[in-house]
Amino acid sequence: MKLKKKPPTQGGSSSHEAMSNDWLDTGNCPIAKSYRAVHNVLPLVAKYTQPPPGMKFKCPPAIVAARAALARTALVKNLRPQPLPAKMMVIALMGMAANVPLGVWREHTMKFSLSWFVAVHAAVPFIAMLRKSVLMPKTAMAITIAASI
């Protein structure tokens, strides 16, 4: 099944860019989706972290490019139609596999240094993008986080 690509919009804007209120309410960027999830669970926290009206946000191009590149890989294309337990198992194994070399690197860094912080958190964006690319439900996120730890 092929998805139709949306035609580019006039004026150079993209679907990854919007004014603050529109972006928070309808944006497809993971940051906007996370904000909406926090708003539903912790409205007081979301109220104080909401950006000022009229501020323009743009999903970082590196995130857009990385998600697009990951979605085009054979692994993701073959994993999408699989049942949820198979997706969860593969992502859990990928999380563990990514964290083994990072753990070895972390052992050779000074605790709480910048390189230690990077070694501890480097796999998180990759696993999050992989989970999103294979169309896993948000409830499965806890399993993938536990596997990464």
From TrEMBL:
**Keywords of this entry:** Membrane, Transmembrane, Transmembrane helix
* Gene Ontology CC: chloroplast
Give the organism the record lists.
Answer: Papaver atlanticum
Tell me where the transmembrane regions lie.
88-106, 112-130
Question: Its domain of life?
Answer: Eukaryota
Specify the protein name.
Uncharacterized protein
